[in-house]
Amino acid sequence: MSAAEPTLSPDWSQELDMVTHQLQNETITLALPGLGVAGLLLMIGSSALRHPDVGVLLGISLLLFAAGIWFLHRWNYAVAAWALVIGVLATVLIVICWNGVGVAVGLLVVPVALATVLLSRLAGVAAAGCCTLFVLLVPESLVFVPFQVCVVAIIAIWSIIGIILLALRPLLTTVQWAWSSYRQSQAMLEQARDYQGQLHQALDELTTTNMQLSRLNQHTQSLRQIAEEERHIKERFVANVSHELRTPLNMIIGFCEIITQSPETYGDAVPPALLADLAVVLRNGQHLLSLINDVLDLSQIESRRVSLIKERVSLAEIVQAATIAVRPLYASKDLYLESDIPADLPPVFCDRTRIREVLLNLLSNAGRFTERGGVRVRAWREGGDIVISVADTGPGIAEEDHDKLFKPFQQLDVTVRRHYGGTGLGLTISKNFVELHGGSMWVESVAGQGATVLFRLPIDPPAPVEGGPLRWLNPYRPYEERVRSSILKPVVVRPRLVVIESGTAMQKLLARHLNNVEVVPVADLEEAFQEMKREPVQALLINDLQVDEALQRVSASSRLPYSVPAIICSVPGVEQAAGALGAEDYLVKPISRKMLLETLERVTPDAKTV
Q1: End-to-end alpha-carbon separation of the chain, Å?
Q2: In what side-by-side order are the strands of the sheet with 385-392?
Q3: What is the pLDDT of residues 213-224, one digit of tens each?
Q4: What is the spatial distance between Cα 336 and Cα 330, in angstroms, rounded to a whole number?
Q5: Which residues contact 335 (CB under 8 A, 6 or more apart)?
Q6: What is the bridge-based pairing of β-strands 385-392 and 518-522?
Q7: CA separation for the pair 503, 522 (Å, rounded)
Q8: What letter would DSSP give residue 9?
Q9: How does pLDDT run across 325-372, given as a tens digit for each residue?
């Protein structure tokens, strides 16, 4: 198949054949009047023929033949087409041979054209071959046909074949292309309709989803407000409790220190066993005070109440002070403690006390968990930051446990706290102190190969952040105005209430007195929980005559969301009111005659009402 020819599916080819067949039927219908006109012309011009009576008879025969072809065409197309071609050919031959009209051989192009158009190309070529043989082999005893006329007739016969074939080819190609384009356009139209339906469905779903997101956003804001209030309450509680605990604890520790360090103050009667017990009380009191201080520091950090006194500080001085403080611990375990701090490091803008506390926590942890080897402290500059690392030769930390290190009250193993002690707050507090300076802290370690804790501090203070809503706008990005409006429907978020009741009294009451409220009726508490899980609600309304029992059911369930209030009331309907009174039915004023008669008929179906 050439590139100019369209590719059609079998269904399209069948429909195209049907259309072609219909056009051929119409061609036969249009050819019959011409056949009748030819018969009339033969009858009129019969006097010019050799046998006039034959011309008249032939004209009448053509008229009758046209009528016969008409009826035959309605029965079978193929038979009618062959009959028409053979009849026209026979008529032309009779005119040529019977009446001796040699120049009539030019009329042989008519049956050839009809055979090509009505039947097929092969039938046209066969008809042209037969007519050509007739012109070449016709005996002169029947009719004399000049040679020039024969040549012209043969040329005309084959020319009409070529002309028809040349005309049909682009015509059929054009029809095929047009038919193919029509089918493709029809398929695209159906596809566009499907897409349009899907688009409408998607828009409806987006509108519904947008409404649900708006409700979830409102619900999230309310929960966030509740969480913020709870967090502030917790922070105030921790701070107050810590302060209240430290006051008596300081007195206990102070008296224990005085008794254990200066027992002569109380005379010579203090027994050694009592002094040993007091030493245990002092040690545990100091441990408890350390824990309370850590908790208080953590609560202050979370509430952003920690004040940092920043200044330009030499990092070498901070490292030296921290190493001197922890060196007795390393000496008791025969561990080395090395520091590698370049002398050309620039001073860091930080709080000296807090960073020293960070280093003390890291060095204390490294010393407690290291049994052989030692710890090395290094510092170097990376761009505008200073990076400090504390590397030990301890047991190391598995990669899956890295995230647990900086969580409060977390220990990697339940036996670690028993063996090494500690509350699990040191790294958490240290990380928060570093982040308050605008830095970061992380750990690099593999199990069995030691651990390295690193933190980064900016050398210079960060640029001040502009307050207010303008801090979220980029002044270097041009403003792009929206050129088209949104096609989504505007979302109207209505309050959503879930109602549990056996009738419809509460629903009617809400519909009468509340506008723009979505009421979702459910049958029981389980269905109400499923509805609240699917989409947030503003309140749960329970309409029950037994208020105490309903309250117990709601209180016994722990699935009610914290922010959703449950309102239990008794709004009886007609059926509930009648049942509570022990009556058959219940009527509410104003009472119409029709309502009274229907009630009487329902209560006493055997009674006759007037």
Answers
A1: 91
A2: 336-340, 374-382, 385-392, 451-458, 440-445
A3: 877 777 787 777
A4: 7
A5: 367, 370, 372, 373, 374, 375
A6: unpaired
A7: 10
A8: -
A9: 888 888 888 899 999 999 889 999 998 888 888 898 898 888 888 888
